[in-house]
Design goal:
Elements lengths: L1 H13 L2 H31 L2 H12 L7 H11 L4 H30 L6 H35 L8 H22 L7 H28 L7 H35 L1
Helix pairs in contact: 2-3, 2-4, 2-5, 2-9, 3-4, 3-6, 5-6, 5-9, 6-7, 7-8, 8-9
């Protein structure tokens, strides 16, 4: 027990992860609206498909309380009527804010490995490219939902897959995405085994967090007078929890790589 306590202290405070979680939470909060607008802009410029825009809104709403789902849906679908210039600005804003969150994970891994970091220009461009990858995978996930539903109809399996299967598919996609970020964001690339080891618990935990936040909002739903503050608290709790598991995953991957190198 004492050894486990020392390990947790060394991992959480000794490696500085406790200081990285608030920074990542800030960037996640800052990137919610730009990310939604950027995805809507991509849908409007490339796909011109209202149904796909709704699917993208559903993907984002998985991590937000029910009270803001309609607002996010209206935000994404309404963006489609904007001018190409505004859509371009929305895409740039999405990539810029998401690159900040990826930069925090890159800093965690680089610091724990004691390696050099990217220069400020190339590092930002690299993280923006990874942010574009995240957006592309979210859009692909939204599109695949429609494809899968069509296949289940053709095969006579019903109108939708079981929720457990969808959860596993989403978790597998999140694990792969996080492994790519953990591996490629730092200047010193991790081995795939280290990246996957850190991404596995983080990707699984991300699927559970929205349900836990939903339980919190449901139990506090009777306090209508402070409903706005409860929704805001739910968003912050959800993002802080996501930031925690993402940073812990990066720390696990870095420690595994450090042991492998040693």
């Amino acid at each position: 027990m004492r050894r486990a306590t020392r390990w947790v202290y060394s991992f959480w405070w000794g490696d500085g992860l406790a200081d990285d979680v608030p920074a990542l939470t800030y960037y996640l909060l800052l990137s919610v609206a730009p990310f939604a607008l950027g995805l809507a802009a991509v849908e409007a410029l490339l796909l011109k498909d209202y149904v796909s825009a709704v699917e993208v809104a559903d993907q984002i709403n998985r991590y937000l309380p029910d009270e803001v789902h309609s607002d996010v849906l209206q935000l994404i679908t309404g963006t489609r009527s904007s001018s190409p210039y505004l859509l371009s600005i929305a895409i740039v804003a999405m990539l810029w804010t998401s690159s900040g969150a990826i930069g925090v994970l890159e800093r965690v891994v680089s610091r724990m490995l004691g390696g050099a970091r990217h220069n400020i220009v190339f590092g930002r461009l690299r993280n923006m490219a990874l942010g574009a990858l995240v957006a592309a995978l979210v859009i692909a996930a939204a599109g695949s939902a429609t494809v899968v539903q069509g296949l289940t109809d053709i095969l006579g399996l019903g109108t939708a897959l079981p929720s457990e299967v969808i959860l596993l598919l989403n978790a597998a996609g999140a694990v792969v995405l996080l492994a790519i970020i953990y591996r490629t964001a730092p200047l010193q690339h991790l081995h795939w085994s280290s990246a996957l080891l850190g991404a596995l618990p983080a990707g699984m935990a991300i699927q559970v967090i929205p349900n836990l936040v939903g339980v919190y909002v449901a139990n506090a739903g009777g306090f209508a007078a402070v409903r706005l503050f409860l929704v805001l608290a739910a968003v912050l709790i959800g993002l802080y929890s996501m930031a925690t598991v993402l940073v812990v995953g990066a720390g696990v991957a870095a420690r595994r790589e450090r042991r492998r190198g040693g």
